[in-house]
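G., the chain you wanted modeled:
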Amino acid sequence: MLAGMSLLGGLFLGGAAYAVLGTRIDPQSPPKRASALAWVAMGFGITATLMVLSGLLLPAALSALGIQPVIAFALPAWLSIVFAFAGTVAAFGAFAKHDRHWPTWTGIVVGLLPVLFWVWFVIAEIVTPHG
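Predicted structure as tokens:
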């Protein structure tokens, strides 16, 4: 339930960023430098990727250092889902407006990484539930 609401929230946030910042891009002439939409998409994607990586790697790193991992260090997973989908929607929106600069490509790649992780996670949970 929370994952589904997070997905919808991410799609809404990415669509809102596209609606507000995408209107500044003229689709007839490609922008000479990266658009604000591309930078926002990259920011969302990097944030989501770092959140997922911190949730996966931080407990193992703390255990290796002899520190007892505490659940309080965990970032909310639903927030990484929101940022991942928002970044992916915004990045593809910038791409659709013919913004082909490196922040757009970076936003697509780093946004899709956590999106693919969460989709894989949901499929694995459906196939082998933890009952």
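The mean pLDDT is 89.

Shout if anything looks off.
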